[in-house]
Amino acid sequence: MNEINSRRLLKEDYTKSCKDLAVYLLGKTLIRQLENGELLKGKIVETECYLGGEDKASHSYNGKVTKRNEPMYMPSGTTYVYVLYFGYHCLNISSEEPGACVLIRSLEVVSGREVMEQLRVAKIKNISKTIKTTDLCNGPSKLCIAMDITRESLNKFDLTNPYNSQMWIEEQESDEEMAVINTSRIGLGPSAEEWKAAPLRYYILNNKNVSKRDKKAEKELMFLY
């Protein structure tokens, strides 16, 4: 069996524009080490850009700076973990432009499946059945629960530090070709209505762990091949 070589992403890997970083992160492995030493791993299969500036869907729209969105203005590779309603979290990573970040939308489980399921089930009341592997991390809040990522533990976290042991991202050598779908974002509020069609979401074609497919965009891409 051939040995698979992997390396941890460093500062220079994250120093990219938001759009470039969103595509670059696809296929990379997000690794979370729990306090007991357990390693949870998931391949990044879907990302989404939030550009700041004129992007009305961004928390940094029009250059807004608050205590909450400070990580969006921190150096590339800094995590921005914010809280949605009912205590759900979302994981973002800052890019090189001030106020811009990439939302990690979906993962494909690589290892630690049983622990991920336990964490998800513990968050869901009155559940009596197991969760399908493809449903464990197919959404930004789902993956945060499954990887035990919270604002309290991992906000403003420096992913570029080669010595940190709580969370990092790796890439592996691979000859596998990866087709990427570029499509619109999901779940934007009415204040960002005109930004709904902006092609700022990216996902790996034919991956079953993606939160929402764009079949029209997939057909168009397949036609090019």
From TrEMBL:
InterPro entries: Formyl_transferase-like_C_sf (IPR011034), MPG (IPR003180), MPG_sf (IPR036995). It catalyses: Hydrolysis of alkylated DNA, releasing 3-methyladenine, 3-methylguanine, 7-methylguanine and 7-methyladenine. It is an enzyme of class 3 (hydrolase). The keyword Transport does not apply. GO terms for biological process: base-excision repair. Belongs to the DNA glycosylase MPG family. Keywords: DNA damage, DNA repair, Hydrolase. HAMAP family: 3MGH. Hydrolysis of the deoxyribose N-glycosidic bond to excise 3-methyladenine, and 7-methylguanine from the damaged DNA polymer formed by alkylation lesions. Its EC number is 3.2.2.21. Pfam families: Pur_DNA_glyco. It comes from Aromia moschata. NCBIfam families: 3mg. The keyword Hydrolase applies. It comes from the Eukaryota. Binds MBD1. Binds SSBP1. GO terms for molecular function: alkylbase DNA N-glycosylase activity; DNA binding. This is DNA-3-methyladenine glycosylase.
